[in-house]
Amino acid sequence: MINKRGKGKKAQQLFGLPFSVIFSIFLIIFFIVIAFIAIRHFLGLRDCTQIGLFIEDLQADVDKAWSSQSSSFEFSGNLPSSLDYVCFANLSNSLKGENIESKVYSDISIYQSADASLFFYPRKNACDMPYHNIKHIDVNEITELKNPYCIEIESGKVVIDIEKEFGEALVGLS
Asked: Is residue 69 part of a domain?
């Protein structure tokens, strides 16, 4: 009986060791999965913050140009690389432009009732901020030849030429 109990304790020790190893591996995998989820969440927050800061900075530079007599400068902003274009559109006017403008127009045309002049394409990657109204901007002039007027985002950077001539009431883009 002593031998049987001794073997029984060894069997329990052998069974206990693999269970603790399996449990440790399970915990390690659990923590790694949670870490990847958290990292992905924070990267998503970074993208949304970039879009919000881009809108604020663009509005500030447009306001600066609008409040001056005459102004011409480049606005450079950062946007997530998941976005392809930043577009200015007058959705109350008809579509004018090339093939990319028609794709963008069909994507943003659902916002016709919204008071908006700035759009991000594709809108599904715009963090619930696919459109925004930029004040003091002459959307009619900007979209005279192309509606929407789109500027390509290259490697997460976009450059917009902001200008206001002497005597003009609103700011334009070139």
From this structure: yes
